[in-house]
Amino acid sequence: MQCKQVISLMVLTTWLMGFAGFPSFAQDLAEFEKKVTEFTLDNGLKFIVVERREAPVVSFMTYADVGSVDEKKGITGLAHLFEHLAFKGTTTVGATNHEAEKAAFEKMDQLFLEIKSERRKGERADKARLEELQMQFEEHQKEAEKYIVPHEFDEAIAKAGGVGLNADTAWDRTRYYYSLPSNKLELWMCLESDRFLNPVLREFYKERDVVAEERRLSENNPISRLVEDFFATAFKAHPYGEPVIGHMSDIQTITRQEAEAFFDQYYRASNLTIAIVGDVDPKQVREFAETYFGRLPKGEKPEPVETIEPEQQGERRCSIVAQSQPIVIIGYHRPGINHPDNAGFDAITDILGVGRTSRLYKSMVRDQKIAIAAEALSITGAMIKYPNLFIFLSVPAKGHTNEENEQALYAEIEKLKTELVTPEELEKAKTRTRADLIRQLDSNSGLAAQLAFYEAVTFDWRNLFHQLDQIDQVTAEDIRRVANTYFTNKNKTVGTIVTEEE
């Protein structure tokens, strides 16, 4: 396989597998519950605490039940932008004189609104006025920068021995996470609660430009463009059809006021779930939580997205022409993680598309040699709350085409619909599913991520364990039924990259 092909496949698989469903957990729930303490503060913030005393470290996961699906037309990209800004500090962290920088912010915001107003005139815009406004804007931006203490939030955590400081945004959630020595529990409580109690959207316009550059890079990547077009084609009503990073014109025109309003609406205590795993005393955790996170104002949990994607009535297709190897993606609409058929999709993922023993690999890569990679994955799990897609993808080998690979994928799907999977295949799928999740949960941070997700999306962290029961009950007949129900032509979207001729 050529290096370029390997890199491109890794990009595509990583992008899609970011949505892949988590498998099941083979541990006795009753025994595990003895190590779990859960409580909800008066303001609605839920805590899940797990004692793991093997090492003097603690992992923290703050799960905000907000993502790009909660944005409105014209202001896409806000959820991702706020994730960036959440590391810029608070009224007491990140600046020497917040009142002075706030005055500069207000002037910058007013000037930006004037710049937007003038730019809307298009060809009739006064260029001299725009230059003057821009010059004034930059002067106030420099004034605000005088008071900044760069990276103060990050450095406070690093000096305390923190590792893995990071955050990520997806369609349905935003997560903030890192680990600290166990004697730094109160420091975490102080810093983490402060950035949601007193956030300052510091360096707002500079960070917005950073996100715009991320967007520009994605537009120059054929695989990113294909994925974006693919989901926009598959979803005509639901906001899963919008890019998480946002549209370029929206990113460039978002205002600080819009970002603050978004924060006020979605970063309420009732919309946060926190999982803490490691060497901790649950009683002390609760005391600190009430002291620090109890300060967050109480508010009703925001309403979920009510838009339901209408039933698809026929095949949809999209294509990207680019200087890239050909790729074909086939997606079928499927129900969400809380649906009884979810376990069946997990089994299909393993049997058809995971590893060198999967049907797709053996048929298309090993035997027919028409693809350098062929996989199947279910878009549920870490990022997904609403019904999404089940994906088949392949990368044609040299001398072979998208059309040839597409037909080979259909042949394997048809076998799934007409023939029962073997008992050996089904048992291997269940065994691998069990083992995979155990490996993921071996770390404190992995367990914290899972618990927070299952609590927020399935409304009970115990469903992390119940997933095992559900997949153990999957039968060969269930798999055939699921395939016939969902893998239909009218429920299908196909996306391809067509190699541009030199």
Quick overview:
It is built from 19 helices and 11 strands.
SSE topology:
Elements: H1 3-17, H2 29-33, E1 36-40, E2 46-51, E3 57-64, H3 78-85, H4 98-119, H5 127-145, H6 152-159, E4 163-169, E5 174-181, H7 185-197, H8 204-219, H9 222-234, H10 248-253, H11 256-266, E6 272-278, H12 282-292, E7 316-322, E8 327-334, H13 342-353, H14 359-367, E9 371-378, E10 388-396, H15 402-418, H16 423-440, H17 444-458, H18 463-472, H19 476-486, E11 492-499
Please provide a written account of the structure.
48% of the residues lie in helices and 16% in strands. By secondary structure, the chain is an alpha+beta fold. The strands form two sheets. It has a six-stranded mixed beta sheet, sandwiched between helices. It has a five-stranded mixed beta sheet with strand order 7-11-8-10-9, with helices on both faces. A hairpin with a 4-residue loop joins strand 4 (163-169) and strand 5 (174-181). Helix 3 (78-85) crosses helix 8 (204-219) and helix 4 packs antiparallel against helix 5 (127-145). The chain starts with a helix and ends with a strand. Residues 1-8 and 17-27 have low confidence and may be disordered.
